[in-house]
Fold this protein.
Amino acid sequence: MIKPVNTDMAAYYAQRNNFDEEDVENPDGMDALDDIMENLRDQLTDQHVLELACGDGYWTDELAEYAASVLATDINPSLLEQAKTRELPEDVVRFAVADALDPQVEGEFTACFAGFWWSHVKRQDQVEVIARLRKIIGKDGLLVLVDNSQVDTEKTVIARTDLEGNTYQIHTLPNGERYEIIKNYYTSSTLRKRLGPLLKDMRIHYFEHYWMLTARLR
């Protein structure tokens, strides 16, 4: 008997244990990932960074090397516990449970970073999400997003598209549980069209497997 599809995305990521390998370290995209890491260092050195949806701390580990401070947040406490096992410098990195769509956090920040999260934000919610980030970081605050480009593999198959244009994939965990996950893919022109009114000084680096956006909040 096939189990019903679960739509709780937070529950899916709380149970999955192959974050690095599946989302980030794609053997065919390692050169691009190196370029992204260099750009991150250039953009976020000495910044006070709010990191959204940090997961198991893959990107947090990188940011800790050069950011002035990092508040790494995730909606899943279990993932934050995994991130803490990386033993990152306590004078640089703090952790907090927070919903990336509406982060209720304390602190002063000059930048916001999110790796492989923007694709999970519904198109109709993006304006409100950017507005909330602007309240936290302030006008002219730096926004850096990194996410997947769509390539023709079994992992990028779209199961359905809703009326708002959001696309969804079906992922199956080892225990057989099936999850429907929102996964929007964007071209450079689509990102500019959707986010242009909300951001300024936007730069988009587009790779075969990834894209990276840097901009200032209007």
Summary: The longest helix spans residues 30-44.
